[in-house]
Design a protein that fits this description.
Structural class: mainly beta
Order of helices and strands: EEEEEEEEEEE
Radius of gyration: 13 Å
Mean pLDDT: 90
Low-confidence stretches: none
Distance between the termini: 40 Å
Helix content: under 10%
Largest sheet: 7 strands, mixed
Number of strands: 11
Length: 122
């Protein structure tokens, strides 16, 4: 079983940027698809994007332009860079792992990190 740990969350002001990190235990295998999700209070968990084993990153159209996922197999890390944060981005951000290709539904991912809180407020 792979354990995931997110880090990098915190309190930021509107307009600022943030980089979140996800570290899988045992290393980042090339066969892993790593996705980032977020869940705001009272809302369903929402997919942000996914990096598959070929390094291709996929985003829902509604989130393109401010969210960028990068993957460093050598450093065993997957990152989520967020630009232009606004209060609507306040949520718990999760990384999740599955073998093979990316998927958009949370239930497709068997492994999850505990999440990191991002709060955007002035």
């Amino acid at each position: 079983q792979v354990q995931l740990v997110e880090s990098g969350g915190g309190l930021v002001q509107p307009g600022e940027s943030l980089r979140l990190s996800c570290a899988p235990s045992g290393g980042l295998k090339e066969t892993y698809a790593i996705a980032w999700f977020r869940q705001a209070p009272g809302k369903e968990r929402e997919v942000i994007g996914c990096s598959n084993r070929d390094g291709i990153t996929e985003y829902p159209n509604s989130l393109k332009g401010r969210f960028f996922i990068s993957r460093d197999n050598g450093e065993n890390m997957v990152y989520l860079q967020i630009y232009g944060l606004n209060p609507e981005d306040t949520a718990v951000y999760y990384c999740a792992l599955r073998g093979g290709v990316c998927a958009r539904t949370p239930t497709a991912y068997p492994e999850w990190g505990p999440g990191t809180q991002v709060t955007v407020s002035s």
